[in-house]
Specification:
The protein contains 15 helices and 17 strands. With 458 residues, it is of the alpha/beta class. It has 3 domains: 149 residues, Rossmann fold; 65 residues, Archaeosine Trna-guanine Transglycosylase, Chain: A, domain 4 (Roll); 226 residues, P-loop containing nucleotide triphosphate hydrolases (Rossmann fold, 3-Layer(aba) Sandwich), CATH 3.40.50.300. The strands form 3 sheets. A 7-stranded mixed beta sheet has the order 3-4-5-2-1-6-7. A 6-stranded parallel beta sheet has the order 14-13-15-16-12-17, sandwiched between helices.
Length: 458
Amino acid sequence: MKEKIYVIDTNIILQNIQNLYRISDNGTNILVVPETVLFELEDKKKLSNELGYYSRAFARLLAKMKTKEIDHKKGFKVVKYFNDELVLHVIAKDEYEENIEQVHLSECNDKRIIEVAVIAQEYYKGSQVIFLSLDVYARTFAQFKAIKTETLHDDKSTVPRFEFIKNFNLDSSMFNTLEGKRINDIDKDYSLQNFSYSFNSEDGNKTYALVHNEKLDLLKENDFKSLSVKPVNLKQKLFTKAILSNAFDLLVIDAKAGSGKTLMSVVSAIRLIDLGMYDKIIYVRNSIESLDKGADIGYLSGNDEKFRIYNMALNDTLEFISKKHLKKSENRENKESIDSKINELTSKYCIETLWPGEARGRTLGNAIVIMDEWQNSSEKTTQLILSRLDETCMAIVIGSNRQIDNMYLNKYNNGLTSLLKQTNNAHEELKMFAIELEKAVRGKFAEFTERIFENDHK
């Protein structure tokens, strides 16, 4: 079988440097890195976020590789690197057809990378040359030049269908004996991903339960009486009960916008701190620059101002909870009263925010760590945060695969999906729980947009 030649776009490296090893197939395939990719990586090396990390990691990788030869050809040069796992060639043209224009820098870079892919077709004649990119526009430019293209994680079967809540028919006579019963005694086909059950009888009885330690914990009316904000639908109740039970170490929630995932996470975390089970709440949200230039994170001064925009969901949540805590005699719309209550809650429950870049070298303990909008975080960032937590922590990972803003990720390869996939397996280190929140609870506008822009399009 002939070797394949993969011309690598910048985004393949920035998505996860481990991609190179997977593509290489133990040195069977040759990876071609266009000179322009090096320039783009060099430009990101100083960033303190994940893109900077991968840029520096690639520079370290290149520095450790051995140089086999430098091949001078008419119009271009090829520098050939190798190690035990990779064969990597860097190709640079003497002159490019595409002139660099600052206003169209990204497009110009894409076209220069494609120019190298065209050269690769001639240089590696007899081998299959494939341009590998996450960017559909760059792949289209390559197709204009009759270059075969591929992207990563195209196989949709890699994201299994989950049955986090299982419907199960049961005789009414058994309902009174369900509490604490082993699930395997009820359902012989019980699967690890069946974290919750909806039990139904032919005469109309219904009851719901969580499964932890393979035993049933029924949903009860008084489960939420101590909460300042109560869950309003079944899935919210199951999610909230899972947190309050303190039976799970890692909870993973795929939830659409407006489903109350952040609110119920914080409210439940506050209750557990009141019970003395934890000392603080740490709110983590990755900084994704999906805003227009001039307003994105790189253009704001100071860390507080930079990350304020990413912590607005937490601030809105604390404002909502604060209004619930204010007495009826107090003005619940008075900004000073609300701000004072937010500060009180923040201090009492030791609520702090954490940017992933600040987590390196830290160990977090006695904390409920809420990892929000995690569809925008990679596997590497997920590993970084979770590896900071000691055995006294609970992690709540929430996000929505309907709202991915990270251009280097998709719904098949982000940190949220990676954790959801793990719900099919038993893990001796920790206990997992997962659920999908599908119902928006923000009110008429959320319901309107869901019906108009989602359901009707299906």
